[in-house]
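Something for you to look into today, if you have time. Could you write out one complete protein record for me, on any chain you like? Leave the record below and I will have a look.
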Amino acid sequence: MNCDPAVMRYIDPAPKDIEAERSRLREVIVGQDGPAGSFWHVETRAKPGFLGWCGLFALEDSGLIEIGYRYIRAAWGQGIATEAARAVLDHGFRVLKIDPIVAVADPENRASQGVLRKIGLHHLGDAFHYGYDLPFYRLSRAEYLARIRV
């Protein structure tokens, strides 16, 4: 997935070596023990198999927890990202009691920004993260819990 230029277009478009990516992925998986719960494998019940990941992780050195996701092209446009992000957001707020949950997205990645809005995050303007000014989204635990009680 990380070697597909279309998937990495808004993240890191530089060509990737598949063996280096496998090694890096192993390190990421082994190092997942933070308070956010890290990345979860995403697949559908109807057709099991890896479609991508969705998870919670530290946003650089900000002290904030970010929700993020990445999917193979075959999973795009089917609502999978939104459904998985809703489940991860719920877990983050209700089980892990994280407050707030934030996200950033490439300014041109309208699909990713659409997912963030659909799951209830509010666009608060731009913020400097990952070396760029990026659209910044945020949702507090209190806002989320009030919304799901309705």
The two ends are 38 Å apart (CA to CA). The helical segments are 5-8, 18-30, 80-95, 110-118, 141-148.
